[in-house]
């Protein structure tokens, strides 16, 4: 026997774990595991044992269960099989055991009274529910009786008996008068537990004729009332005082039995004058603390959750000034059965041992009985592995056939307990449920928990390894948890890496790898510091952090552990918090919190705000509150309010805010009424009916608002009819046979009077029906049942109160509930437009069959198979929704050369209707995708081997491949293009008779009957001839013919070495500069795709300022930077637009120093001024002489004189005076497209002005080989390509033409 106990103990942890795993099958940790494991049924939901139902409603008896495979259900009624198929009023919900008894269709609840029990069964066993006792509730009427008036002498006691009808469940009793007001109760007058009304002594004020006892039956929501009882009290002088006597209970002792866990109620009501006071004690003990309560003016002792320890004698003592009396109640606490150890589900593997334990207690001691699959175990099928030992079933060497559901029944005379527990025998190899390669991240020096959730039967053993081939983990630095989790108490940097979990049992082994990353902790390296700041100053707190580079921190600032005030004075920077214009309310503790996904740190500092040094300044403050509020001119809908302003405290009052309180509907809540200017102290206020107004006034100045004034006196306006009706009236059905009418209720002050109700009216639209109306209160919804499905209704909701109705409301249109559409669209046709697009047509369904708001049509379509591959795949349905009454639609994104199916469904607000029959259509062939790869291998002097893969998407039947190739020289010029057609069944070929040491570019694509697909390109180079034979020019030598290539086998016995040719990436190199005082000429060389758009970036060398950017017009390779500062070092680089991150290396140049002009302004020279004066005087003399000669009729040869003395200013400039030769400016190009003639003049300072050249000094050619003289004149020539040489002077003036350089092809 001891051996068996030790075996059970050794398996306890296994049972606990596997029970957890089986219960965890409801959580989809591993869908494959859920699909494969079998499980006996388990009852998950059932109705209560004592089930009292409303006889007017359908009876729903719940029974839900889970299991694998899903269980089937059956019922017994009063101990015999209940055949629900023979009763048309009884149905069972699909995939459920819940019964629905349709009482509302003519059934009677009394006919279905009885004891019901549900059984859930599958191939692994059967679980049963409790015995569910069904009883309909009853609310019988009071029996008629003749009640005599009660005439009682003042001071005597009186009991008014209620004696309510016996209902199920018992009714709730209360006493009221004819006005439906509860009768006041006190120490003198109170209601007993039996519902009677007890008077310890009557007083004259107790005389009345409307003592009415009410019985409320909650299940049927009905209230019954007894006939009114009349009480007349007559006085006698003097009134005789009496000592206490007990009205209930009678005698000196009584007994009370209560069940464990219930509420114990003990009652003592005494008569006497003066009214006695009741006190309770427990003989030989104390009343239980925290569970004892006194009710009904201490006449009732209430002890909650009683236990056996509460048994004993309880004494109530009634006392007044004339004496006392007492009563002893002997309380015995019995107990219905309760669990000590309820049986738990047991999961075992074949050959294992286990046990089910069922232990319960009660008073009296309950008896334990066992059932197997709902059958008493004595008559259940024999199981050699099972042995029953009282409250324990012991299992030894179980087999799979031992799986079953066992029921334990513990019962005594006060009730029973029933528990299901299954034994599930499983033989399962290990499974690891933790996802593979799961990433765990922890902070350095913190614990790391790495999961290995697993399942297996028998329980697998778990081992951990670090790395794929590491040794098993052992030692004190690791903690191994029973659930498979590996714990590293203190994670270090070297703890990072791959960890492998291995689970094995006798049925197999499985392993899983996970990753661990250890991150640096987040630190605040500079914390905020304590600050003392004067009022209206500025303060800043720093919070500088250091964190792991892979984690993104977020910084949050708090004030006094709450969010920062929403104030623009608080400025949150990256590493600090700044508070501008500090005030006293900014005093407090400021906390910087830094959060990452893995850790959080914080630091705090206190800010103390002190007053600024006292200055003789005027103190400005908020105004004092107004006072002496007065109401005058009271009318039904208006009143006048006046007040006296308080002190404005050196800041003029700008306005007054008037607020009101509605003491009738919302006491204590103040609402905004209006606002008036600060110069006004009276206001006429508009009022609403049936509101108990009081007003207060708040003064406002530039500093702020005053405290509110004291409230004015109250003013209650008269009641009136409602002025408005509810808004937002709607009618929308929630079920196919109802109409739900909703509205927004009026607020309290909108009611305009007491007794606010709503008159709800409706009638079917377009049908000659009368309005149906109902009056409701305290609701904003009304449900009309029994309506036809989806028909329009006219609806209106009108407010009314005790004084009358609101104005006639407007009507709205609503609809009763929708139901699913009945008919599928017909005549579905598909027109294939091309290989990827089709158009679908259908006939619309009749609107009556939609049975709701037509929302549109849904087209479900899916690919069945590819016609080229004949291979089916997982069907992925696609859905297109077409709104409204559309009867066609386009299906985009189809795959060419494929077979598709589709169907069409109509959609309304309830859902989708039935699908049309599946329509099959096929798409035609399309062009294929590009070949999956193109490899060029085995380069020799004159041959290359090409290998390729077929297109991923052939989109039809391939008929051939097209190969095109051509040579490329060093300047990226392309040679003649050769095209070869290759059969579709080939996958490689060898190209022969190629030029040695030559780069070739290949274009490769596939063809179907429709056309050619997209091409794939590659480049490769033949091997260089070691003898150094010159390479022929492009296109020289043999032409290409069909004899230049041969196909090679697809498979190779020895895999050849592949020489991967790197593709040509674009680059910019040889950036050179030629600088003058204020401008510089930039040139560069470019290799890459054509039509690149360049830009030049520059800036002052060593400066941290952003680069300035200039766009280069066209694709030229030079640019002039203008507006530079003389004598300054600049950095420059060139980039290409559209190529992300593609720029040249930087170059540095320096502009020339500012030079004084070598030319002298002759206009300021003395000799020139004298010469000009002499010339002017000479001309004047000649004019005078000429005038005299003319007057005399003579002639003078002025022309000859002028030729002999020509002005030097109009002579052509010589070459040594700074001519530019054949250079022409952009302005001259724009004017006449002709070069400047030799001798064209330059500005007087012999420099090219900024506005004379807009782009470059070199408009044609690929680079600049020029320099600038100190005076800025350009002395270089154009060249195609420049090789760097030592800089000792100007370059040669002779260079090849840029056109020849561009056209050269070696």
TrEMBL record:
Transmembrane in keyword set: yes
Keywords carried by this UniProt record: Cell adhesion, Cell membrane, Disulfide bond, Glycoprotein, Immunoglobulin domain, Membrane, Repeat, Signal, Transmembrane, Transmembrane helix
GO biological-process terms attached to the record: cell adhesion
Transmembrane segments: 1167-1188
Ranges annotated as biased composition (Polar residues): 707-731, 1290-1306
One GO CC term, this protein: neuron projection
A Pfam entry, by short name: Ig_3
Biased composition annotated in UniProt, kind: Basic and acidic residues: 1197-1217, 1224-1234, 1243-1252
CDD domains, per the entry: FN3, Ig3_L1-CAM_like, Ig4_NrCAM, IgI_NrCAM
Main localization (coarse): membrane
Topology in the lipid bilayer: Single-pass type I membrane protein
Signal sequence interval, chain numbering: 1-24
SUPFAM superfamilies for the chain: Fibronectin type III, Immunoglobulin
Protein name in the entry: Neuronal cell adhesion molecule
Residue ranges, annotated region (Disordered): 707-732, 1197-1306
Ig-like domain residues: 41-129, 136-230, 243-334, 337-424, 430-517, 521-608
PANTHER family: CTX-RELATED TYPE I TRANSMEMBRANE PROTEIN, NEURAL CELL ADHESION MOLECULE L1-LIKE PROTEIN
Chain ranges of the Fibronectin type-III domain: 625-720, 725-819, 824-926, 930-1026, 1062-1154
UniProt cross-references to SMART domains, sorted A to Z: FN3, IG, IGc2
């Amino acid at each position: 026997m001891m051996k068996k106990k030790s075996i059970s103990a050794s398996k306890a942890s296994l049972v606990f774990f596997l029970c957890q795993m089986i219960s965890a099958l409801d959580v989809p940790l591993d869908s494959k595991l859920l699909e494969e494991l079998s499980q006996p049924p388990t009852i998950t939901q059932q109705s209560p044992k004592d089930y009292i139902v409303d006889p007017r409603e359908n009876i729903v008896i719940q029974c839900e269960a889970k299991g694998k495979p899903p269980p089937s259900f059956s019922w017994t009624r009063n101990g015999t099989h209940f055949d629900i198929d023979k009763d048309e009023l009884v149905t069972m919900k699909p995939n459920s055991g819940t019964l629905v008894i349709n009482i509302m269709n003519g059934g009677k609840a009394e006919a279905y009274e009885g004891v019901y029990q549900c059984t859930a069964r599958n191939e692994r066993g059967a679980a049963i529910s409790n015995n569910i006792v069904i009883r309909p509730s009853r609310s019988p009427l009071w029996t008629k009786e003749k009640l005599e008036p009660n005439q009682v002498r003042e001071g005597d006691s009186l009991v008014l008996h209620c004696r309510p009808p016996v209902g199920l469940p018992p009714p709730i009793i209360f006493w009221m008068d004819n006005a439906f007001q509860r009768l006041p109760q006190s120490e003198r007058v109170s209601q007993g537990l039996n519902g009677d009304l007890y008077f310890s002594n009557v007083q004259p004020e107790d005389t009345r004729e409307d003592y009415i006892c009410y019985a409320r039956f909650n299940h049927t929501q009905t209230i019954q009332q007894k006939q009114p009882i009349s009480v007349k009290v007559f006085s006698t002088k003097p009134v005789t005082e009496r000592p206490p006597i007990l009205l209930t209970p009678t005698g000196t002792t009584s007994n009370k039995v209560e069940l464990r866990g219930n509420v114990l109620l003990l009652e003592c009501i005494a008569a006497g004058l003066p009214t006695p006071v009741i006190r309770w004690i427990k003989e030989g003990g104390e009343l239980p603390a925290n569970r004892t309560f006194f009710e009904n003016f201490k006449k009732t002792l209430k002890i909650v959750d009683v236990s056996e320890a509460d048994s004993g004698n309880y004494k109530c003592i009634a006392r007044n000034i004339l004496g006392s009396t007492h009563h002893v109640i002997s309380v015995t606490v019995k107990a219905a059965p309760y669990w000590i150890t309820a049986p738990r589900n047991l999961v075992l593997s074949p050959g294992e041992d286990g046990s089910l334990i069922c232990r319960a207690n009660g008073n009296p001691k309950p008896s334990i009985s066992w059932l197997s699959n709902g059958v008493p175990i004595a008559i259940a099928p024999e199981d050699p592995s099972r042995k029953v030992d009282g409250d324990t079933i012991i299992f030894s060497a179980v087999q799979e056939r031992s799986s079953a559901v066992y029921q334990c029944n513990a019962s005594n005379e006060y009730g029973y307990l029933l528990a299901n527990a299954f034994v599930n025998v499983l033989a399962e190899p290990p499974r690891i449920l933790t996802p593979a390669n799961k990433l765990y991240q922890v902070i350095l020096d913190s614990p790391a928990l790495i999961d290995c959730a697993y399942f297996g039967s028998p329980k697998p053993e778990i081992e951990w390894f670090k790395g794929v081939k590491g040794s098993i983990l052992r030692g004190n630095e690791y903690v191994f948890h029973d659930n498979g989790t590996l714990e590293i108490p203190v994670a270090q940097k070297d703890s990072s890496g791959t960890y492998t979990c291995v689970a094995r049992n006798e049925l197999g082994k499985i392993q899983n790898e996970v990753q661990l990353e250890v991150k640096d902790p987040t630190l605040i390296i500079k914390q905020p510091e304590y600050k003392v700041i004067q009022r209206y100053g500025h303060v800043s707190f720093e919070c500088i952090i250091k964190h792991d580079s892979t984690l993104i921190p977020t910084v949050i600032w708090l004030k006094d552990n709450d969010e920062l005030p929403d104030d623009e004075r608080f400025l949150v920077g990256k590493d600090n918090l700044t508070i501008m214009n500090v005030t006293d309310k900014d005093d407090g503790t400021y906390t910087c919190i830094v959060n990452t996904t893995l850790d959080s740190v914080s630091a705090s500092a206190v800010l103390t705000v002190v007053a600024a040094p006292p200055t003789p300044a005027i103190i400005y403050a908020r105004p004092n509150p107004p006072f002496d509020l007065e109401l005058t001119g009271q009318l039904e809908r208006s009143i006048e309010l006046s007040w006296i302003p308080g002190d404005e405290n050196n800041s003029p009052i700008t306005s007054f805010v008037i607020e009101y309180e509605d003491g009738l509907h919302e006491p204590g809540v103040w609402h905004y009424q209006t606002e008036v200017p600060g110069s006004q102290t009276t206001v006429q206020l508009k009022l609403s009916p049936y509101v108990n107004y009081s007003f207060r006034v708040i003064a406002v100045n530039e500093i702020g608002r005053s405290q509110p004034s004291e409230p004015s006196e109250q003013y209650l306006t008269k009641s009136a009819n409602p002025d408005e009706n509810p808004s937002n009236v709607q009618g929308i059905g929630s079920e196919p046979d109802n109409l739900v009418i909703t509205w927004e209720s009026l607020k309290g002050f909108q009611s305009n009077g007491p007794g606010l109700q709503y008159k709800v009216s409706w009638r079917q639209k377009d049908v000659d029906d009368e309005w149906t109306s109902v009056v409701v209160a305290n609701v904003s919804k009304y449900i009309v049942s029994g309506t036809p499905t989806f028909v329009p209704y006219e609806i209106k909701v009108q407010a009314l109160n005790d004084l009358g109705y609101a104005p006639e409301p407007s009507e709205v249109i609503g609809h009763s509930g929708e139901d699913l559409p009945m008919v599928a669209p017909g005549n579905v046709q598909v027109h294939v437009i091309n290989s990827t697009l089709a158009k679908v047509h259908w006939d619309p369904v009749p609107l009556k069959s939609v049975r709701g708001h037509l929302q549109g049509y849904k087209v479900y379509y899916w690919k069945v198979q590819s016609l080229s591959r004949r291979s089916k795949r997982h069907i992925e349905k696609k859905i297109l929704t077409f709104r409204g009454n559309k009867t066609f639609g386009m299906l985009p994104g189809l795959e060419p050369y494929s077979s598709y199916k589709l169907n069409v469904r109509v959609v309304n607000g309830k859902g989708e209707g039935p699908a049309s029959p599946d329509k099959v259509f096929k798409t035609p062939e399309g062009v294929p995708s590009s070949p999956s790869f193109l490899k060029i291998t085995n380069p020799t002097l004159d041959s290359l081997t090409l290998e390729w893969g077929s297109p991923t998407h052939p989109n039809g039947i391939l008929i051939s491949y097209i190969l095109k190739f051509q040579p490329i020289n060093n300047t990226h010029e392309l040679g003649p293009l050769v095209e070869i057609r290759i059969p579709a069944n080939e996958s490689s070929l060898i190209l022969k008779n190629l030029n040695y040491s030559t780069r070739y570019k290949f274009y490769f694509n596939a063809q179907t009957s429709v056309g050619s697909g997209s091409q794939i390109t590659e480049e490769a180079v033949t091997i260089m001839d070691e003898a150094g034979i010159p390479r022929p020019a492009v296109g020289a030598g043999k032409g290409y013919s069909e004899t230049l290539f041969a196909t090679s086998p697809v498979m190779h016995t020895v895999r050849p070495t592949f020489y991967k040719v790197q593709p040509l990436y674009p680059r910019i190199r040889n950036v050179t500069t030629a600088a003058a005082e204020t401008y510089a000429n930039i040139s560069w060389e470019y290799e890459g795709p054509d039509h690149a758009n360049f830009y030049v970036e520059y800036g002052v060398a060593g400066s941290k300022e952003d680069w300035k950017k200039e766009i280069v017009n066209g694709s030229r390779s030079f640019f002039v930077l203008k507006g530079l500062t003389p004598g300054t070092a600049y950095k420059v680089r060139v980039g290409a637009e559209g190529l992300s991150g593609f720029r040249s290396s930087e170059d540095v140049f320096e502009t020339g120093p500012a030079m004084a002009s070598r030319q002298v302004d002759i206009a300021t020279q003395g000799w020139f001024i004298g010469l000009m004066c002499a010339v002017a005087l000479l001309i004047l003399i000649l004019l005078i002489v000429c005038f005299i000669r003319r007057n005399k009729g003579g002639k003078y040869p002025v022309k000859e004189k002028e030729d002999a003395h020509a002005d030097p200013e109009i002579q052509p400039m010589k070459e040594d005076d700074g001519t530019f030769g054949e250079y022409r400016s952009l302005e001259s190009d724009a004017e006449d497209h002709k070069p400047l003639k030799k001798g064209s003049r330059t500005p007087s300072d012999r420099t090219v002005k900024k506005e004379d050249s807009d782009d470059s000094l070199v408009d044609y050619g690929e680079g600049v080989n020029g320099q600038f003289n100190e005076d800025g004149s350009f002395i270089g020539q154009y060249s195609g390509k420049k090789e760097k040489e030592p800089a000792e002077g100007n370059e040669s003036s002779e260079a090849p033409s840029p056109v020849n350089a561009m056209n050269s092809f070696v």
